[in-house]
Structure formats: structure tokens, C-alpha cells
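> forwarded from #structure-qc
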């Protein structure tokens, strides 16, 4: 077992927001994340029901927590979050962190 953390954030888009807008904002958000210490990799996922998920791999919980603390200071993060229907919740409320028990396959 390692200290690696997998973060899963479920996403619902605000009415009128397109998938293309989501991907464009996600691309900008990725440029921000690429410079965050402890960031490993990320995937934007789509479910058939119109729900999305952001899957982020972190070196450890401290790295994930540091990004959460920095999110409000990043225009890229705020633009990404602005597309999401959060029903009055803050961006961190739909996020869960899981400890990696085992990893398989490629890097």
C-alpha cells in the first residue's frame, strides 16, 4: 500500500452549459493542476446519463488537501467550477478521497 490518493468529484452541468464548454474549462484547469506539487494524473469521465466525474491521482492526502486550499485563488479552477450545478454546495462538497490499496496496469 502507498500513500497515493484518488480523488473522485462528480459533476452535473448547469443548464445551458455544453460538454464542449466543460472540456475547454477542464483543459485550462489541467494546466493549473500540472503545476501543483503532488499531482500525478487526471481523467475527465462521462456517464451515459449526462453526469461527469473528475478522477485525480495525488501523491498523498497532503497534496490533495493543498490543492483544495488553493482552488479558490485560481481563475482556472473558478472558471471550471462555475460550469457546475452545485445546488448551493461548495466545490469541495462533491469530492471524495480514496486511499489506493493496490494499482494494476501501466503508469
Amino acid at each position: 500500500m502507498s500513500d497515493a490518493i484518488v480523488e473522485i468529484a462528480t459533476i452535473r452541468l448547469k443548464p445551458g452549459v455544453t460538454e464542449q464548454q466543460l472540456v475547454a474549462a477542464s483543459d485550462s484547469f489541467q494546466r493549473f493542476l500540472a503545476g501543483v506539487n503532488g499531482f500525478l494524473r487526471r481523467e475527465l469521465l462521462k456517464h451515459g446519463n449526462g453526469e461527469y466525474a473528475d478522477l485525480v491521482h495525488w501523491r498523498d492526502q497532503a497534496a490533495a488537501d493543498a490543492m483544495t486550499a488553493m482552488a479558490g485563488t485560481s481563475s482556472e479552477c473558478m472558471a471550471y467550477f462555475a460550469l457546475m450545478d452545485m445546488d448551493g454546495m461548495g466545490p469541495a462538497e462533491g469530492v471524495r478521497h480514496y486511499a489506493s490499496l493496490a494499482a494494476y496496469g501501466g503508469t
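QC bot note: The chain has a mean pLDDT of 90. The beta strands are 5-11, 39-46, 52-58, 95-99.
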